[in-house]
Amino acid sequence: MRLVIVSAGNVSRNVIGRLGDRWEITLIDPAEDSLEMARQIRQVDTVRGDGSSRLVLRRAGLEGAEALIAASRDDDINMEACRYARELGVPRIISVASRYEHLPSYRELGVTVVSADNLTARHVEINLDGRRTQSAAFANGLAEAMEFRISNDSPLRGVSVRSLGLRSWLVATVLRDQRLIIPHGNTVLEEGDLVTVVGATEDYADMVETFTAGHANFPLDYGLSVAVSLTAGPTDDGVLAEAAHFVKFTAADSILALHPPLERMEPEDAEDLRRRMDQWRMRHENIEISFMPASAPGFDAPFEAASTESVGVVVFPRPPGRRKVVGLIEMSRQRGVPLLIASGRFPYSGPLVVMTGEEDEEWQGTREAIDMASHSGTALQTVGVLPPQFLPGEKTLHDIRSQISRVREEASVHGVTIRRRILRGNPVRVVDELSTSSLVVMGIGGHPYTYLRPGIVGLMAATVDSSVILIPSRS
């Protein structure tokens, strides 16, 4: 993620020494010796010049930046840089006020403003790391206390305090559902815990990495296997092949193939299905495939299996017509099992998420898309779609950029690269015109989906050429 800092002074050098490697930093300062001092702390890009100059700010990459810190000792320079960042829609703008009486002017710009050097560095650090909620130094600066939220993708979730293997740090408290816990070695950390850790400042960076890291686990929170419904028809080969690719693309560990009960089939058809099962096992010998008679007909079979087996995703070839697609989406929503509408366009170049400003629904799919990109080693494509200029719309460029910035911050925890595009038009047409082999990832909202009200999710799943995976809420 790109961060532009105006000034290479004390505050800026303090900040860059504390930020993680996922921030790509560009420093602006008119003095070469100040820039050189900053380069001694860590690798940063530098631009020599006036931080209030729009030309200099553009050269520093402010237009594509995720954040600006204006830390000059001149409030006029800081406010001009903040003003231009606001015009460009930079999602996070933080400034240092040299004079207390100028604080109202900064606030009128709608930026975060702080004043003391020490407070500035700490405040900036917390603002740029969403998984950290508090940080404070004590013991003459030799010790730190930090507060972290255990996220749903944290590798520490389900881990006991004893197993953390901390040397110079101590887990002091755990706040769980507004209940304070003084932990012991057998205390197991859970998602949502607010954990306070205390320890030596010299190991500060390692502890931040330990408590803010994430790991890819989709679809394991839903189930271990990918369920496919076989009909003993010619499309089975392609659907099973895409399901096998999807297993490799994610943290799933096997395929559950549901077939018609053999005793109810004609003898020749049953024998043909047995032969095809043997062929599938040989063709995908590096993936565990379990075959099981379906307990329900048609579309119901994989969803019924999910009630008794560990199924994380169900896979169907795209059925003809919007009505059947929407029916599948509604089943996925009601059963709480992710749905892959397979188009046969694989291997996937990576996951793709569409942002229209409906943040709650879209974020449901985005978190899983980050998991898939991390597990598969691919980039995550984000496509922000604004309404056509002739249509009124509440969502603005700033809204979309803020949403993508949130995705980029979360993705950086997993080391996932984000490729961003912002376009205008109909979201379905925008994605279809990209002619992409990406796997389109979308969240399913809590409202019912019908033929007459399919929403963007239903239209996307029924229309685009790419395969589409739909993620329902786990709650």
Compact overview of the structure:
The protein is of the alpha/beta class and 475 residues long.
Tag the structure with descriptive keywords:
475 residues; alpha/beta; ten-stranded mixed beta sheet; 15 helices; 21 strands
Strand and helix layout:
Layout (H helix, E strand, L loop, with lengths): L1 E5 L3 H7 L7 E6 L2 H10 L3 E4 L5 H6 L7 E4 L4 H14 L3 E5 L6 H6 L3 E3 L2 H11 L4 E7 L4 E7 L19 E8 L2 E3 L12 E7 L3 H9 L12 E5 L6 H14 L4 E6 L7 H17 L4 E6 L6 H7 L4 E7 L4 H14 L3 E4 L8 E5 L3 H18 L3 E7 L10 H17 L4 E7 L2 H7 L5 E5 L11 H9 L4 E4 L4
Parallel strand pairs: 1-2, 1-4, 2-3, 4-5, 5-6, 12-13, 12-15, 13-14, 15-16, 17-18, 17-20, 18-19, 20-21
Antiparallel strand pairs: 7-8, 8-11, 9-10, 9-11, 16-21
What does this structure look like?
The chain has helices spanning 10-16, 32-41, 54-59, 75-88, 103-108, 117-127, 204-212, 236-249, 267-283, 300-306, 322-335, 359-376, 397-413, 427-433, 455-463; strands spanning 2-6, 24-29, 45-48, 67-70, 92-96, 112-114, 132-138, 143-149, 169-176, 179-181, 194-200, 225-229, 254-259, 288-293, 311-317, 339-342, 351-355, 380-386, 418-424, 439-443, 468-471. It is an alpha/beta fold. Helix 11 packs across helix 15 and helix 12 runs parallel beside helix 13. The two termini are 31 Å apart. The model has no long low-confidence stretch (mean pLDDT 87).
